């Protein structure tokens, strides 16, 4: 149910495939805060909040900690708040070259870590698929071998 550009937590949960409990937990630990509250006190979220939750959802299977998630989100928040947009070109704060380089280096470390973790997961998946294939062969042999 959308309320003036805002979504209730149930819609956000459906869109992100995260449980209500998980979304509330991320709120409690400060990773995602609802953009507003309804008159009844219910959490209300925007598209930007959904995008933030999707970043978290994508980091979770790669084994990033809550602290690492928070660090990456703070990097992207800082970069986003200083990047001019068509609707707010002049109001954005400008990063110094040193700060931009520092944020870019931190972001690059996260990219490298994500790539390394994806490679490790591919290796695990390949091993798991080999195992499943071996089990299937064994099952077929048992089914076709006379006793």
From TrEMBL:
Coiled coil, from the record: none
HTH merR-type domain: residues covered: 6-75
Leader peptide range in chain numbering: none
Keyword annotations from UniProtKB, A to Z: DNA-binding
Taxonomy, superkingdom: Bacteria
Keyword DNA-binding: yes
Key word DNA-binding present: yes
Region (Disordered): 78-97
Gene3D superfamilies, A to Z: 1.10.1660.10
Annotated protein name in UniProt: MerR family transcriptional regulator
Organism of this sequence: Nonomuraea salmonea
């Amino acid at each position: 149910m959308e309320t003036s550009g805002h979504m209730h937590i149930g819609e956000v949960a459906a869109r992100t495939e995260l449980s209500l409990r998980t979304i509330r937990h991320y709120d409690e630990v400060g990773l995602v805060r609802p953009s507003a509250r309804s008159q009844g006190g219910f959490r209300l979220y925007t598209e930007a909040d959904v995008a933030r939750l999707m970043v978290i959802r994508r980091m979770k299977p790669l084994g990033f900690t809550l602290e690492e998630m928070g660090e990456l989100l703070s990097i992207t928040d800082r970069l986003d708040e200083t990047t001019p947009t068509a609707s707010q070109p002049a109001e954005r704060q400008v990063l110094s070259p040193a700060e931009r380089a520092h944020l870019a280096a931190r972001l690059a470390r996260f990219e490298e870590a994500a790539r390394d973790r994806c490679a490790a997961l591919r290796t695990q998946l390949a091993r798991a698929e080999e195992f499943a294939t071996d089990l299937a062969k064994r099952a077929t042999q048992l089914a076709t071998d006379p006793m």
